[in-house]
Amino acid sequence: MPAILNYLLHLSTAAALVLAFFVVYVRITPFDEVLLVRQGNGAAALSLGGTLIGFSATIASALVHTSDYYQFTGWALGAMLVQVLVFAVTTRLLRMSKDQIEANNCAFGGLLGAISLSIGLVNAGCIS
């Protein structure tokens, strides 16, 4: 396959995976992050932003360290599952996450975002 087509295939798949992750993630959160961000809620933006960056780091690592398209897709789907599971466990342990995010507690939103980013980076490292 010509390099440009390979690039476009990987780019479009990566973008679709990030979009799919975004849709899944905002549906499992106990609060409406998109609405909160639109309303200027910094805590929701920090939490969602950290999660997207963490997942994207794993996607980037999968792109760099896998030898074929199917392997890349498999690692990306596995990373998506890990990110969602970590969010579920974290919010159960920090029982007050819904209230804190909705109250625009940016420190708490930053913590959730940092946890997601950390897991994404560890996940990315495991792929390499």
UniProtKB/TrEMBL annotation:
* Localization per record: Cell membrane
Q: Do you know which Pfam families this protein is assigned to?
A: DUF350
Membrane-crossing ranges are 6-28, 40-63, 75-94, 106-125
Answer yes or no on keyword Transcription regulation: no
Which keywords has UniProt assigned to this entry?
Cell membrane, Membrane, Transmembrane, Transmembrane helix
- Database matches in InterPro entries: DUF350
Q: Identify the main location.
A: membrane
UniProt keyword Transmembrane present: yes
Which family does the UniProt entry place this protein in? Belongs to the UPF0719 family.
Protein name per its UniProtKB record: DUF350 domain-containing protein
Q: Which organism is it from?
A: Massilia solisilvae
Organism ancestry? Bacteria, Pseudomonadati, Pseudomonadota, Betaproteobacteria, Burkholderiales
